[in-house]
Specification:
Helix content: 40-55%
Number of domains: 2
CATH superfamily of the largest domain: Spore Coat Polysaccharide Biosynthesis Protein SpsA, Chain A
Number of helices: 16
Mean pLDDT: 95
Strand order of the largest sheet: 3-2-1-4-7-6-8-5
Strand content: 5-15%
CATH architecture of the largest domain: Alpha-Beta Complex
Largest sheet: 8 strands, mixed
Order of helices and strands: HEHEHEHEEHEHHHEHHEHHHHHEEH
Shape: globular
Number of strands: 10
Distance between the termini: 51 Å
CATH topology of the largest domain: Spore Coat Polysaccharide Biosynthesis Protein SpsA, Chain A
Low-confidence stretches: none
């Protein structure tokens, strides 16, 4: 078999993977629930916010919850040893909103990760029959609480985790952040998350996570995942393992979030959690690298080769098909989630950037220097000892 035949098979294989990604993504666009705005819950709802050095975002976060169409019983913020103006802002907000409570965090127990520590304390202070965790950089839409309550009824959940609309600012954010939706929607038919009992069928996002109090207590709360950096996945996996229904929803109309504010934050934030998020194993990382390069990068590289090298002209058709399928997939996400068009057009560049971060995440994990919010964490295997 000559080299051109191998390259031609590679080109068609890449186009096939791109077709699979487009097909699953198209199915998910129809199947991914967003929650009806008329959802209601007559019991107590507690909204819980872990906050560490969130002076830029905490006021918008709290005010949006207080302005929600659906009444909540209480809003509790855990100020996790903030060294900026977060505490002063919260004190001012307490004077405006009697429902707002602020608790200070205990010292971080040995081996624990910061966010599960804050989330566990928030649950201990809450009195609601349903608890909604909201990251401090996340802003609930006016119908956000109602839509979350609707998801408990249809498709029917014990725990709801959603992907907010992702706001972006810098060029690197425009490139990388939309790939969250690519990752979530391209490879897993999403209804399997709440229909299949197997906990391997799972996706989660902790920016907004709502849970029945009874479910939270049954699975042992955030104490049970205290050493997990990717706490949202660990928490939802534990719930599924114990037979609870986890609904993963499109949060476009539920909340919006600017996850990171600069290229450096994108690099450090994703480096913290990508490797552990795909299981913390080298085979899993290599599998992701191979699939992403084949489906999302190879068609573009082969198309360039076919256009500039006459000897590679036979690759033109399969490479063009692969590129076209990628563009169609990205444009459907642009329409659904309001991604920037530039991100779709520079799709392979963004993917290469994301894979570079994934490799760095592997390096940081193996070196035991996962850093975030001024804290450094050991590798997962060490934390779980």
């Amino acid at each position: 078999m000559d080299a051109l035949t191998v390259m031609n098979a590679l080109a068609w294989g890449s186009a096939g993977l791109a077709a699979v990604a487009l097909g699953i993504s198209t199915f998910n666009l129809a199947a991914w629930p967003r929650g009806g705005r008329q959802g209601r819950f007559e019991g107590k709802i507690s909204v819980l916010i872990p906050a560490r050095n969130e002076e830029k975002t905490i006021e918008r976060c709290v005010q949006a919850i207080m302005a929600n169409e659906h009444e909540v019983h209480e809003v509790i913020v855990c100020d996790d040893h903030s060294t900026d103006a977060t505490g002063q802002i919260l004190e001012r907000l307490k004077a405006q909103h009697p429902k707002l409570k602020v608790i200070g965090s205990r010292p971080l127990p040995a081996g624990w990760v910061g966010k599960p520590n804050a989330c566990a304390q928030l649950a201990a202070a809450a009195s609601g029959e349903r608890m909604i965790y909201v990251d401090a950089d996340t802003v609930l839409q006016p119908t956000g609480v109602s839509r979350l309550m609707a998801l408990f009824d249809s498709p029917g959940a014990d725990l709801v985790t959603v992907v907010p609309r992702q706001d972006t600012g810098s060029f690197v954010e425009h490139l990388i952040l939309p790939l969250l939706h690519v990752t979530y929607t391209n490879w897993l038919p999403l209804p399997l998350i709440w229909r299949a009992k197997d906990p391997r069928f799972l996706a989660a996002n902790g920016q907004v996570l709502a849970v029945r109090r009874s479910t939270y207590d049954a699975i042992g709360g955030f104490e049970a995942v205290a050493r997990e950096l990717v706490d949202d996945m660990a928490f939802c996996r534990l719930a599924k393992t114990q037979g609870h229904t986890v609904v993963f929803a499109d949060g476009f109309h539920i909340a919006r979030c600017r996850m990171y504010g600069s290229a450096r934050e994108v690099w450090e934030g994703f480096s913290k959690n990508i490797y552990e998020g795909i299981g913390g194993g080298l085979p899993g990382l290599l599998g992701v690298l191979l699939i992403y390069l084949m489906a999302y990068v190879a068609p573009y590289a082969l198309l360039v080769a076919a256009l500039v090298a006459p000897s590679m002209a036979a690759l033109l058709v399969p490479a063009a098909v692969g590129v076209g399928l990628n563009l169609l997939m990205r444009l459907t996400l642009v329409a659904r989630h309001k991604h920037g068009l530039l991100s779709a057009l520079l799709h392979p560049v963004g993917v290469v950037g994301l894979l570079s971060i994934a490799i760095n995440s592997f390096v940081w994990s193996r070196q035991g220097r996962l850093r975030w919010r001024g804290r450094t964490y050991a590798a997962r295997a060490t934390r779980l000892q």
